[in-house]
């Protein structure tokens, strides 16, 4: 009897275990392809840094400038604890990360969160879904991103390869902008007086200005390569106010990715990259060691009427010498310069941007919305606003320069828009009557209208979940035509077409590329021209859209989209985390 019971129990145990293995198999298979959780800690602290013969105290992450590189794989979850040890309120934005249903981690101050106050901390918790490539992180409050920035490298899933030749090595090349003075003082004074903020004193490559600036020869980024090898350069424009041309002397670059989306590879001598954009390029080293060093140069592309920092940052590409090569020969090697376009070469800029096309393969398809639910036409540009009553205004007739979209200069609220939306407390915080079109028509790129006064307000667009949106952004000539790099949080969009002059709604849609358009998160609205984009509003939350020239953002060239929850459980915004900062 005992033996019968034992065998019966054994049979039940084996049956249970076999059923468990069947139940667990799908989970094990998923786990094999699921990402891991990566932890980072960002201590926001002041650090003395010397550039251009001057030492100043700057805001940093962990005392590093530029900040630490974040490395993850597609599918990984990131938990990044940010602890604020400085006098300023701080937020961090993970630029280009989709933040699917995790808008609380997006980072723009007073849009998705209240800032992290002195002595407080916040854990940014998000998963990287369906993205791989180069992005970056930066502060998203006031002008703190002048020194608070660093690259994000998203590797493909394990055992997945690049759709281009495997590089021998990879290097981040992060462009920045440096002021001798304190940047918070600069923008605060400008906003108080109604004047334009002072321009920067230098550009930097990985935090270093290079030999074209006074006493900066020792502060030069050097890239050492081996003959015949291919290198992947991960370019990031983290500058505040300047689009940049970039060139490596006597070398051709192959563009393979833009804004963390693979593109059809194309060769170019010069890359144009706006603030907020990232571009991956392959550089093939020469097969024999040349008797020269090569300048890696970047300087502004500037189309507006305002003054700008017309200087050039230079890094140096060096070939590794064999042990037998004498060091004395090395000292006499000449530096070959990189010739860049004229600072206002808008023709080159347009041609370069039109070369960027999505791969559009079975593995990397283009999911451009074919039908459009809602169409918008936004004018983007400058204007004027009256100075506030307590403002010692520099402008004539008590006015100051401002910027806006569809004649609305955005007013930053004093509480976070996402919380107001989630808890149905929008009254007194924002309205959803942002204009679909400009309030009046005029010759946008011709003679400006007599009245260039802007309205102001915290106005948003409300979208139902899964709405397909077509948006045409039109530059205006008010206070001068200018290229504006527009960045959309929470989404990638498809760049259908761009052109010079005024958008023609009857003729220009025939030019729309619906086959392999570039997929981006930041696009330059051409100077005196327009760009058309489409995106699918499949991410519930409140999503900021703004010019990535920080001076224009400060002046109000920004707005936000409210995407409402869908009906399904995976179509709803997650509840806020317990440690979400309070205003």
TrEMBL record:
Signal peptide range in chain numbering: 1-31
Keyword flag Protein biosynthesis: no
SUPFAM superfamilies: Cupredoxins
UniProt key word Zinc-finger: no
Cofactor, free-text remark: Binds 4 Cu cations per monomer.
Any GO CC annotation of this UniProt entry: apoplast
The protein's name: Laccase
Native source organism of the sequence: Gossypium raimondii (Peruvian cotton)
């Amino acid at each position: 009897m005992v033996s019968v019971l034992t065998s019966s129990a054994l049979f039940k145990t084996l049956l249970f275990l076999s059923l468990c293995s069947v139940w667990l198999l799908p989970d094990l298979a998923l786990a094999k392809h699921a990402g891991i959780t990566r932890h980072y800690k960002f201590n926001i602290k002041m650090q003395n840094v010397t550039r251009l013969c001057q030492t100043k105290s700057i805001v940093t992450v962990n005392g590093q400038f530029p900040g630490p590189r974040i490395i993850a794989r597609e599918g990984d979850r990131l938990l990044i604890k940010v602890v604020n040890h400085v006098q300023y309120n701080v937020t961090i934005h993970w630029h280009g990360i989709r933040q699917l249903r995790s808008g609380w981690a997006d980072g723009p101050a007073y849009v998705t969160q209240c800032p992290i106050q002195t002595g407080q901390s916040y854990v940014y918790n998000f998963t990287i879904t369906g993205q791989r490539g180069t992005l970056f992180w930066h502060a998203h409050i006031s002008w703190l991103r002048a020194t608070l920035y660093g690259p994000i490298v998203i590797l493909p899933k394990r055992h997945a390869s690049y759709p281009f030749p495997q590089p021998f090595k990879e290097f981040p090349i992060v462009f920045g902008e440096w002021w001798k003075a304190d940047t918070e003082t600069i923008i605060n004074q400008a906003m108080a007086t109604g004047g334009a903020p002072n321009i920067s004193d230098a550009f930097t490559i990985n935090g270093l200005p290079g030999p074209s600036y006074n006493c900066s020869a020792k502060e030069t980024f050097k890239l050492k390569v081996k003959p015949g090898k291919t290198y992947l350069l991960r370019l990031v424009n983290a500058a505040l106010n300047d689009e940049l041309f970039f060139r490596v002397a006597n070398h051709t670059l192959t563009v393979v990715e833009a804004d963390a989306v693979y593109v059809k590879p194309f060769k170019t001598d010069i890359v144009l990259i706006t603030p907020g954009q990232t571009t991956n390029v392959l550089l093939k080293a020469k097969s024999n060691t040349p008797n020269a060093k090569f300048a890696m140069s970047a300087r502004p592309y500037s189309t507006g009427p305002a003054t700008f920092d017309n200087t050039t940052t230079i890094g140096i590409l060096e070939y590794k010498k064999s042990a037998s090569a004498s060091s004395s020969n090395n000292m006499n090697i000449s530096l070959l310069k990189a010739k860049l376009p004229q600072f206002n070469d808008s023709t080159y800029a347009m041609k370069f941007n039109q070369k960027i096309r999505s791969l559009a393969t079975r593995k990397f398809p283009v999911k451009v919305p074919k039908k459009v639910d809602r169409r918008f036409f936004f004018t983007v540009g400058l204007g004027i606003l009256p100075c506030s009553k307590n403002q010692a205004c520099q402008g004539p007739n008590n006015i100051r320069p401002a910027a806006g979209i569809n004649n609305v200069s955005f007013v930053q609220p004093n509480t976070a828009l996402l919380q107001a939306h989630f808890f149905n407390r929008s009254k007194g915080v924002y309205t959803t009557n942002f204009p679909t079109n400009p309030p009046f028509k005029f010759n946008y790129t011709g003679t400006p209208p007599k009245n260039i006064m802007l309205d102001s307000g915290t106005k948003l667009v409300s979208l139902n979940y899964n709405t397909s949106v077509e948006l045409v952004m039109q530059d205006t000539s008010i206070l001068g035509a200018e290229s504006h790099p527009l960045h959309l949080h929470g989404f990638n969009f498809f760049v259908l077409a761009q052109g010079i002059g005024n958008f023609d709604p009857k003729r220009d849609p025939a030019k729309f590329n619906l086959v392999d358009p570039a997929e981006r998160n930041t696009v330059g609205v051409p100077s005196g021209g327009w760009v058309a984009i489409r995106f699918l509003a499949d991410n519930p939350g409140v999503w900021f859209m703004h010019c990535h020239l920080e001076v224009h953002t400060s002046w109000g060239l920004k707005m936000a989209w409210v995407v409402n929850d869908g009906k399904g459980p995976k179509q709803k915004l997650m509840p806020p985390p317990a440690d979400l900062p309070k205003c």
